[in-house]
Amino acid sequence: MSPRTANRSGRIALAGVLWLMALSATALASPQPGAAKAVRAAPLPGDPHRGAAIYDARCSACHSLDANRIGPSHRGVFGRRAGTVPNFTYSPALKASGIVWTAPNLDLWLSGPTKMAPGVAMGVRVASPQDRADLIAYLRQVSAPH
């Protein structure tokens, strides 16, 4: 097969894949008669190994597992009430929030901290649901007692 033919075949295959993806998206977006409307999708399974890499790349500039930095330390975050890490100065909004760090609350927090608790200092969000699931899986793993 010549390079020109291979390139054309590749474009045709790609067009077919894109068409199937569009068709699938249309079918998924069209509700079936009598189908209940979902309030929130089921949580994605997280990969703690991928979460560790994301944590290192996106969180470690401000956070550490064991030391307070610009943000509080994260080891043991699961089940902890927000605003309670010793020797860290929190915003009044977070201290008063009453949030307990569970997987659903961490997901909401990571998707938009200032939406969850207006007035908090952290403005960084993680847009990707899969990245959030992976980060949460990692934080759950490092929070487990040894």
Total number of beta strands? 0
User: SS-based structural class?
Assistant: mainly alpha
String of helices and strands: HHHHHH
Distinct helical segment count:
6
Cα(first) to Cα(last) distance is: 59 Å
Helix content: 40-55%
- Can you tell me the overall shape? globular
Q: Beta-strand level of the residues, as a percent range?
A: under 5%
Biggest sheet overview: none
Instruction: Round the mean pLDDT to the nearest integer and report it.
Output: 80
Question: Secondary structure elements and their pairing?
Answer:
Layout: H1 3-29, H2 48-59, H3 92-95, H4 103-111, H5 113-116, H6 129-143
What does this protein look like?
The protein is mainly alpha-helical and 146 residues long. The chain has six helices and no strands. The protein has helices at residues 3-29, 48-59, 92-95, 103-111, 113-116, 129-143. Helix 2 packs across helix 6. It is globular and about 35 Å long. Residues 5-40 have low confidence and may be disordered.
Keywords, separated by commas or semicolons:
146 residues; mainly alpha; 6 helices; 0% strand
Task: State the gist of this model.
The chain has helices at residues 3-29, 48-59, 92-95, 103-111, 113-116, 129-143.
